Amino acid sequence: MRSHRIAALTLDDERLAADLAVSEGFAYNDSYADFVSTGLLRSTMLWNRSGSLEEASLGDYEGSARPTPHGEALTYVSELIGRLFRTEYLKYARFMRLAGGSLYVPHRDFLELKADMVRVHLPLQTDDNVYASEENTVFRMRRGELWCLDATRTHSVGSFSERDRVHIVCDFTADSLRQVLALDVPDEPDIPAGNIAERPPLDDAGRKALLGLADVVDEHNYQEIQTLLIKQHFTTGISGDDVFALLKEIAAGSGRDDLLNRVTAHEEYCMVSR
């Protein structure tokens, strides 16, 4: 199953604004900081195994999710979750706030879980300067669009916006997307062409310039160079996997074994096992 849009919903602007105002006072955590190259990603649990806000990470468990105090505080969002999904399959629902200008490190999810998971995003606040990616496809998830994301594939997020992107992210244990949906919508297995971002290819001169960073990379600017490569992913035709491939080439070209070990270990964590 590849990522795709499920449906475009009509949101109640007034009720959503009230929930967003309530969410400003939430206690957030940064448990996903390992996947942020620059900027800030804050999240909080709306539903999870225990119903406690202290449970901040994903894990396998039997049974259905329970609402947390934050989930109960967002009356409209909770109503949406109950109306859109069969919550008996729900394991986690998170309220995720990505600060403007933030970039995710390309990664794969569910590596630490045994069960088959289905992930659904509902953007509540965003604009056309915020992008998501799957492998070498970059696309926009627009406000009110319900999306299924195949988080087992290499994916990333790039914000070139000045304001926070806010999504509800729901994870289900199920055999298929159809099993978890409570609404009847037609199959739409592809990403609509209007959501896909056009990117020019990275030409030989551009690639040579990036690899030339081997002459200056060190422990002080490594993070900035990683961020630069992620920006290239969202603006030119290189894949999320290419980000790590280029970073390894730069590190190897620098002759710095410590930097090559650093990127190799980070790639293992993001893509293979954790």
TrEMBL record:
Domain Aspartyl/asparaginy/proline hydroxylase intervals: 67-173
Family matches, as InterPro entries: Asp/Arg/Pro-Hydrxlase, IPNS-like_sf, Pro_3_hydrox_C, Pro_3_hydrox_C_sf
Top-level taxon in the UniProt lineage: Bacteria
Domain L-proline 3-hydroxylase C-terminal, first and last residues per copy: 189-274
Molecular-function GO term, any one: 2-oxoglutarate-dependent dioxygenase activity
Protein name as catalogued: Aspartyl beta-hydroxylase
Species lineage: Bacteria, Bacillati, Actinomycetota, Actinomycetes, Kitasatosporales
